[in-house]
Specification:
Layout: H1 9-20, E1 24-27, H2 31-36, H3 43-57, E2 63-66, H4 68-72, H5 75-91, E3 95-102, H6 106-117, E4 127-130, H7 140-149, E5 152-158, H8 165-168, H9 178-190, E6 199-203, E7 220-225, H10 235-239, E8 246-250, H11 252-255, H12 261-279
Parallel strand pairs: 1-2, 1-8, 2-3, 3-4, 4-5, 5-6, 6-7, 7-8
Helix pairs in contact: 3-5, 3-12, 6-7
């Protein structure tokens, strides 16, 4: 109906996870993967890679996550491929999480928000990754734009790269880690949302110990499953009662099965089933 409020991303994600399984597959067309698929490292190879991945997976996984940098490296023609990838994936029923990790202030942050979170943009995605390290308040233009369009955001909290710890685990004046302050801001934005908030956190699956309160009433994107060493079996110990809200992200662990569509689908199905077995029924009480 015209003028109706858009369905929030958190509700759409919860439904996709419950029906398709809790899995996010990255679309990371870096040079080594293109070569492994027998494709040239050019725009033609990029387009074939992205199109094959979308055709194989967009009708069966909950989330597809194109890494913007691997498209941007080919300039405007690469961005045009990214636009088609986003549109085709969404048309096939997958939620699209744009992995762009944008972070800035004022009008620049608003411009990033317009690029990824405005329904009139050719890059409009269901959600985008953001960096909060210019201050969580700097993200407000993106948070507001996402809320207005029914989209979501995933904010970096505890990433899996070793360099991140020196910043993210640093202690603030009130004794909390910087990561915990980010998570607390996310929880505040998600307060009262049912069945799931639309502001998510990025928490690496390879960390081993997070030592933070993950009760953010929102999704937890967990990169690092597969080639980076984490497995679905690691999720319950790392995320505890929050495991039911985790969206495990796998890229090379699935993409290196290509270029055959059947092999890509088989790899995605195996990871999805392993996650379901490891996590079990989601905890309805965990907020």
């Amino acid at each position: 109906m015209s003028g109706a409020e858009p369905e929030p991303f958190g509700a759409r994600l919860r439904r996709a996870m419950d029906t398709r399984g809790p899995l996010c597959v990255g679309i990371d067309p870096h040079a080594a993967l293109l070569a492994a698929w027998g494709l040239p490292d050019d725009v033609g190879g990029l387009e074939r890679f992205a199109r094959t991945t979308v055709e194989a997976l967009a009708d069966r996984v909950a989330v597809l996550k194109p890494q913007s940098a691997f498209f941007e490296r080919f300039g405007s023609r690469g961005v045009a491929v990214l636009e088609r990838t986003v549109a085709d994936a969404r048309a096939a029923g997958a939620l699209v999480l744009m992995d762009a990790k944008r972070g800035d202030i004022g009008s620049t942050m608003a411009a990033y928000a317009s690029a990824y979170l405005d329904k009139g943009s050719p890059l409009f995605s269901d959600a985008v990754t953001l960096s909060p390290y210019l201050g969580f308040g700097s993200l407000r233009p993106a948070l507001d734009a996402a809320a207005a369009s029914g989209a979501g955001v995933f904010v970096l909290a505890l990433t899996s790269n070793p360099e991140g710890a020196s910043v993210q685990r640093a202690t603030t004046a009130d004794g909390r880690s910087l990561a915990q302050t980010v998570l607390d801001h996310i929880a505040a934005r998600n307060a009262g949302a049912v069945p799931l908030g639309s502001v998510g956190a990025v928490v690496g699956a390879t960390l081993g110990d997070v030592d933070v309160d993950l009760r953010v009433n929102g999704p937890l994107l967990a990169p690092g499953i597969g080639a980076q060493g984490a497995t679905p079996a690691d999720l319950p110990a790392l995320f505890g009662a929050a495991a039911g809200n985790v969206v495990p992200s796998v890229s090379r662990g699935i993409l290196r099965s290509g270029p055959g569509a059947a092999a890509l689908r088989g790899a995605a199905d195996r990871f999805r089933d392993e996650v379901r077995e490891a996590v079990g029924p989601r905890n309805e009480e965990f907020r």
